[in-house]
Every structure is written in structure tokens, then in C-alpha cells.
Design a protein that fits this description.
heterodimer; A: Rossmann fold; six-stranded mixed β-sheet; B: 250 residues; mainly alpha; 11 helices
């Protein structure tokens, strides 16, 4: 019974095609990374990184495990300051300023199990001092768009993996920050749900554009969701290749990823990844 | 159902075996004691009923010491755990002292406390609180520190202040740990209160047991012990119940 209701809500969520209003007006902010290097003690994790993304651009970062992808994301999000180099989000160049402009979505959903879906989604608003009722109203307005209607009061344990990931993304979006840092957001999902979630995220970003940095170990995922994808080498991570995606966030994901042009770019990135891992 | 039936059946069987062993004289022979020193469950039950007013009056004294001592230990333990979580300096400075405080034998300091604070409730509160403080503090601190580092980062990018991370993330995470500590504390609190009374008090189950032991009133000693056990078990069950009501996500 519960399984059924989950399925129907999921299907309904993905079938939504009508134009969706933006959550709220969030200013576009560009990303600029210049000469960034970082190390933990003796361990050099990143070296000589230069990357840019325009406002509302979606930048993908792929690389072998342990190449410093997550470190780069933490640096961008302002959770730490790079040892060398400069990272700017719009006019914010220091960690504090970046933290105020960037919301971070970790690999695992990390929903707080004692809060309902809607209270999890509204966390940022509550942290900024909004009253519970007002925060719930503002976050709840987005539940329908995300195919989560009827699950506002559900605890995370009662939601499917895909739904939990959507609540986690909603939580990131409701924070109202111009830049989103997504750390392998769908890595924990099964293949079918992951493909569905990619299409879903593509539509969510078309409806509500933000500057996005997406870290992934899945080249196909990065090339489908991002405008450009940077391939990092193994540690210390540096950029070995940058490719432009042929059809970012196109409506039909399955058609795009089998298109010869997409496959050619994917193979080029794959080759760079293999070379960089040596 | 099994949850209640099994322990009740076991306790019933033990009491039955005890009754048989005492009435046949087997237990007194085994322990090499005069039979009047080994009361049977029936005699204990009789004593419980006959001395109900005396026992309940003294039990109330002991219960007050246990509850107030536990309350003090909980308040101080949680405050201390939070302070040590917020300040690395405090934690480094106080943690060894905290462990050391637990190795100080209550036997040694109880008489000093009695001299200091007299025969009233004061020294018993100190003894109960001292014994209960440790499991509550250590468990709560462990719980506060068990928070996922990724979750803390996520909260920071969602504009949470240090206080909000503590209140919205670390405090709920630490609750199951806190309750584990509180359950251990509840079990030892009763023994601690009894000990405090033993050393010096005018009333309480500890005083009753000490005096009745000297008078060889063994049935009433066991009656007092029965009430003491019931007190500890009820307290434990009450905290376990509170835990189930509060920690619904586990």
C-alpha cells in the first residue's frame, strides 16, 4: 500500500511538464577559480586549477576517486580557504562571503531523521530566524513541483531513496543561494532512479536556474546535466581536459545520451580521465 | 507480551524455588545458618504488609534523594557535556579530571560529606549526583561528538550559527546516548542513596536496613530490599519509556 503511493507520487512528479514558476528571484552569480592549490599537511590535493562558470551556468567536475573533487567543492562553498589562489563567487572572494552565496548538497541526503520532510526542506529559513509556520509555507509551496505533495509531514525514513534526494535538493534550493554545490547527489541511488533523478534535476534547473557546480564520478551524468565538464587527474588534482556538452539538460535524456555526438564527447572525456588516472 | 511474561515467569519460578528451599530447611543447611536468619518469600511478603507504613515512609525519603540527586546530576552533566563540546580547551582540561572523579571511592568521601553537610538530605544528594554525573556527562558528550561531519558542513552552508548547529543537529543526535547514560545513572542512583543513608542518616531505607540487620530482623531487611529493587526497576523503566516517546526516529 505504502509502496504504491510512493510509486504514484513519483510518476506524477516526473510527469509534470507545465512551465514552473521560479521559487524566488535569485540573482545570477558567476564562478571564477584562479590558480587554486590546496593540501592537507604533506598531502597535496589540488594543483594549479583555473575554472570559470558564467551566472546560471552548470559546471561539471569529474575525476578518479580521491582526486580532490570534494575538497574543491568545499573550497568553492566557502567551508575552507584554499592554500593558494583565488576563488570568487560574484564579488565574494573570501570564504565567509562564498559561504553566504553557496548552498552545499552532500553525497548522502543527510536529512535529519527527527524532522518531517517539510521541516528538513525549511532548515535554512529556520536558521535565518523565520518562524516555523512561515518557513513551512515557503518550503511547502515547492512540494508540488517536486512531486512530493502529501509527504510534507512524512519522516525521512518513510520516503523512498529518490524522494529523500529530492527533499535534500529542495532543502538546498530553499536556502535561496545563487550557487549550488552538489557532491555526487545521486551516487547512492539505483541506476533507474538515478536516470529519473537526472531528468528531474535537469527540469528543476531549467525552471529555476542557478549557478551549479556538480561533482560526479559518472561522466554521462555530468555531460547530460552540465554545460561544460572539467576532467581532473588523480591526486594532486589538476585539469586534464575541458569538454562542452552537446545538449545540456535536453528534454529527452535517453535520446541525448545515445546520440553519436554525445557518445563522441563522452569517449573524449573518458580517454582524458583514463590518461589522468595514470 | 513475551516481554512481560518471560521475566515474570522467571521471577515467579525463583521465588517458588526459594520458598521450597527455605521451608524444607535446605537453604539454611546449605548456608550453614540458623533457619531464623533465612526468611522465606512468604515471611517477607508478610513483613512487607505488616510494616507497610514504616517501609513506605522510609522509601519516600530514599526516593526523594534518588530523584533530586538524579535531577542535579542530569542538569550538571548535560551542561558540562555541552560546555566541553563547545570548547576544545575545556574538554582537554576537564576530561581527565572527570575520569579521575569517578575513581574517588564514595566510601572514602561519604563520611567527610556527612561531617560537612550534616545528617540531612544534602550529603545524600551529593553522593547520588557524584555517582550519576559521570555516565550522563560521558554519554552525552559522546553523543554530541558523534555528529556526521558532512551534516555539520551542510548546516553551515544553510546559514546555521554554532548555537543552531548545537540545538538543531547535535542535541537531537545525542539524545539516544544521553538516555543510555541516564539509564545507567538510574540503576546506580538507588545504590548511591542507600549508601549515603548507611553512613549517616535519621531515616530512609538504608537506615532501616542497617538497624534491622543489627537486630536480625531479616524478613524486614529483605522487605526493604524488595522495595529498593522495585524503585530501581521502575526508574529504569520510566526512563526507557521516556526514551521511546522522545527518540522516535530510531
Amino acid at each position: 500500500m505504502r509502496q504504491d503511493s510512493k510509486m504514484s507520487v513519483r510518476a506524477q512528479g516526473f510527469a509534470t511538464t507545465k512551465p514552473m514558476p521560479a521559487a524566488r528571484d535569485v540573482p545570477g552569480v558567476g564562478l571564477s577559480i584562479a590558480g587554486v592549490a590546496h593540501s592537507y599537511g604533506e598531502l597535496r590535493t589540488l594543483e594549479g586549477l583555473d575554472l570559470d562558470a558564467p551566472a546560471h551556468g552548470v559546471l561539471g567536475i569529474v575525476g578518479p576517486s580521491g582526486c580532490g573533487k570534494s575538497t574543491l567543492l568545499e573550497l568553492i562553498a566557502g567551508l575552507r580557504e584554499p592554500a593558494r589562489g583565488q576563488i570568487e563567487l560574484g564579488d565574494a572572494g573570501d570564504a565567509r562571503g562564498r559561504l553566504a552565496r553557496c548552498a552545499y548538497m552532500p553525497q548522502r541526503d543527510l536529512l535529519l531523521p527527527w524532522l518531517s520532510a517539510i521541516d528538513n526542506a525549511a532548515l535554512a529559513l529556520r536558521n535565518r530566524g523565520a518562524r516555523r509556520g512561515a518557513a513551512r509555507r515557503q518550503a511547502g509551496a515547492l512540494f508540488e513541483r517536486f512531486g512530493l505533495t502529501g509527504f510534507e509531514r512524512a519522516k525521512p525514513a518513510e520516503l523512498s531513496g529518490g524522494m529523500r534526494q529530492r527533499v535534500a535538493f529542495l532543502r538546498t534550493l530553499v536556502a535561496g543561494k545563487p550557487v549550488l554545490a552538489l557532491d555526487e547527489p545521486f551516487a547512492s541511488l539505483d541506476a533507474i532512479t538515478r536516470a529519473e533523478m537526472q531528468s528531474w534535476l535537469a527540469r528543476a534547473l531549467e525552471a529555476d536556474p542557478r549557478t551549479v557546480v556538480l561533482v560526479s564520478h559518472d561522466i554521462e551524468e555530468a555531460l547530460y546535466l552540465c554545460d561544460r565538464v572539467a576532467v581532473l587527474s588523480s591526486r594532486p588534482g589538476r585539469i586534464v581536459e575541458e569538454v562542452s556538452a552537446p545538449a545540456p539538460r535536453a528534454p529527452d535524456r535517453d535520446e541525448v545520451v545515445t546520440d553519436p555526438e554525445f557518445v563522441a564527447v563522452r569517449e573524449r572525456a573518458m580517454h582524458a580521465l583514463r590518461e589522468g588516472s595514470k | 507480551m513475551r516481554r512481560w511474561l518471560l521475566p515474570i515467569a522467571l521471577i515467579g519460578a525463583l521465588i517458588g524455588a526459594w520458598q521450597v528451599a527455605v521451608s524444607s530447611g535446605a537453604l539454611a543447611d546449605l548456608l550453614d545458618l540458623e533457619s531464623f536468619l533465612v526468611p522465606s518469600p512468604a515471611e517477607i511478603a508478610e513483613s512487607l504488609w505488616e510494616n507497610r507504613t514504616l517501609l513506605l515512609d522510609n522509601a519516600w525519603v530514599t526516593l526523594k534523594e534518588v530523584l533530586l540527586g538524579l535531577a542535579c546530576a542530569t542538569a550538571a552533566g548535560v551542561l558540562f557535556a555541552v560546555a566541553m563540546r563547545l570548547s576544545e580547551t575545556l574538554r582537554l582540561a576537564f576530561y581527565p579530571l572527570l575520569v579521575a572523579s569517578q575513581t574517588v571511592p564514595v566510601v572514602a568521601i561519604a563520611p567527610i560529606l556527612i561531617v560537612l553537610f550534616g545528617f540531612g538530605i544534602g550529603p545524600k544528594l551529593w553522593i547520588v549526583a557524584l555517582v550519576c554525573f559521570f555516565p550522563i556527562t560521558v554519554n552525552t558528550l559522546d553523543g554530541l561528538s558523534s555528529v556526521d561531519a558532512e551534516a555539520t558542513k551542510m548546516m553551515r552552508t544553510l546559514d546555521a550559527s554554532r548555537g543552531q548547529i548545537l540545538w538543531r543537529l547535535e542535541a537531537p543526535t545525542s539524545l539516544p546516548y544521553f538516555f543510555s547514560g541516564a539509564k545507567i545513572a538510574a540503576a546506580v542512583a538507588v545504590i548511591a542513596a542507600l549508601f549515603g543513608e548507611w553512613v549517616g542518616a535519621e531515616s530512609g531505607l538504608g537506615v532501616l536496613i542497617r538497624e534491622d540487620t543489627a537486630r536480625l530482623e531479616t524478613a524486614r531487611v529483605f522487605a526493604a530490599v524488595t522495595i529498593l529493587s522495585l524503585m530501581a526497576v521502575s526508574l529504569f523503566a520510566l526512563i526507557a519509556l521516556a526514551e521511546r516517546r522522545v527518540v522516535t526516529w530510531r
